[in-house]
Task: structure prediction
Amino acid sequence: LRPFMKAAAVVRRLPRLYELCAECIARNVDRYGARRFRSDAVAQVFQVGAARGFITDRNLPKLLNHDRQRQTLSLAGLNNLTEASLKIIPAKCPSLTSLNLSCCNVTTPLLADIVRQCKFLRHLFLNHCPEVNDTVVIKEILPRLPCMQTLALRGCYHLTSATVVEVSQHCKQLTSLSLGHCQYVTDAAVKALSQANTQASLPLQEIDLSYCTGISDEGLRLILAAFHGLRRLSLEGCTQASAETLKMIGQCSRLERVNLDCIGAAVSDIAVSLVAKGCPLLSELRLAGGGANDLALFHVANCTRLTVLSLKRNHDVTDESLSSVLARCTGLKVILLDGLLITDKSLAKVGPFVTTLDLSFCRNITTVGLEHVVGACPNLTQLSLFGCGQVNIAAIQRRNLFLVIRAV
Result:
């Protein structure tokens, strides 16, 4: 066990067999010559490679050669790739319908070349690409991709409302729009979206306005009033949101994913109860940052379809209400409880489908409670235990060598 234990923050796990196979293919792709791999095998290589960082300028062209008809390509997070290697994408993958270049080194000429040659693109992800600005989107992307369905621009902090206005006029098939952390997006943007919906019934189902502090509380209500068919909504960090705005969320009965992290005092037991009652299809609910209490959680317990639940730093939540949620929402896969004043009593209710569990700074939990969790959750792969002084990390790691444990 010793080689896999670290004194620092992360306890490494043993790599799984399919990860080793994917890495072997990527690192030795030169040796396979003209031999073709199945498209699903290449897709697995890209998926694992993006996470483990073994896709490089050297092997990217050769990997793309093995599946020239691919329709989906994700290179998200591979900021080691240079513009020269990214330029081959249009020639190697002309049939792309979905492209994810989030956090990559994209430039205006590169994007112009991609959208010019990949004429079938419907889903474009450019999150956290700082060179993406109004000019790139308005002059290069939108005129060539009028059938865009997904446009993700989270963290492109140079963007302004001008981009959103043009999107509302050009992309009549838009179903998903991400503008998180775009601080220069204002009420003018949401008014344009609302007006486009009135004129042509814009099919918007997902919208991310996280930390869009330029949009007023009135602007947020305008979005909720215009798009009752929303399935995903993120207002993370929108401290301007009022309790009345949160109550309106409960009127969007088709919502499946709601992120209300860090929005301040607007989160109350009444607001949460209205969301829980009005959105019976909820599969993801994020309420980090305080405001939720036991009364609110007793309503959340009725959302039995939940697979993701975040309650970080809600210090008024106790074992009683959390145990009720965990007992009824048995399909939960991601549970984030950072900073809660809970004990092993809650851990006894954690279901078998959990893959990610964050218990950082839950100082009252012990090794006994965690050993039960590891034994009862065969799918658990990520466990965060920062600040848990009563837990023997080595003992927990011995129970599951494939488990990634983040702890101090």
User: Anything to note?
Assistant: DSSP finds 17 helices and 15 strands in the chain.
